[in-house]
Amino acid sequence: MLEITPFYAGLLALLFVALSARVIRQRIAANVSIGDGADASFLQRVRVQANCAEYAPFGLLLLAMAELQGMPGWSVHGLGAMLFLGRVSHAVGLGSEPQIMQARQVGMVLTFVMLVLAALANIYLSIL
């Protein structure tokens, strides 16, 4: 049974809703129904939201599989925290004007390290 992953899924869902709300507010303000209205600032908000949507689900899937295979709780928390903090850091860095490149880079590094560690853990746990 999953006991830890749902916590990080909840945190990431709240982050995604917050990022989506930023896009919706900009859509309403710019009166843009589809696309980005050729507005660089709006495109930036859309990409922040989309980047979260691209990475968070895969990270959560790997996290859940590792937890279900019996990964120790502290490890699941460590990976979940890396994913969440990585996504927050990336969103802050990419979503700021001007961009905060260091935050964006830290976010991607945390996310990629989490994905690689979770992938390797899943492979290891599946062959035991």
From TrEMBL:
Keyword Transmembrane helix carried by entry: yes
Subcellular location(s) of the protein: Membrane
GO CC annotation, single: membrane
SUPFAM superfamilies hit by this protein: MAPEG domain-like
Keywords: Membrane, Transmembrane, Transmembrane helix
Transmembrane segments: 6-24, 106-127
Main location: membrane
Keyword match Transmembrane helix: yes
InterPro entries: MAPEG-like_dom_sf, Membr-assoc_MAPEG
Name of a matching Pfam family: MAPEG
PANTHER family: GLUTATHIONE S-TRANSFERASE-RELATED, PTHR35814
Protein name: Glutathione S-transferase
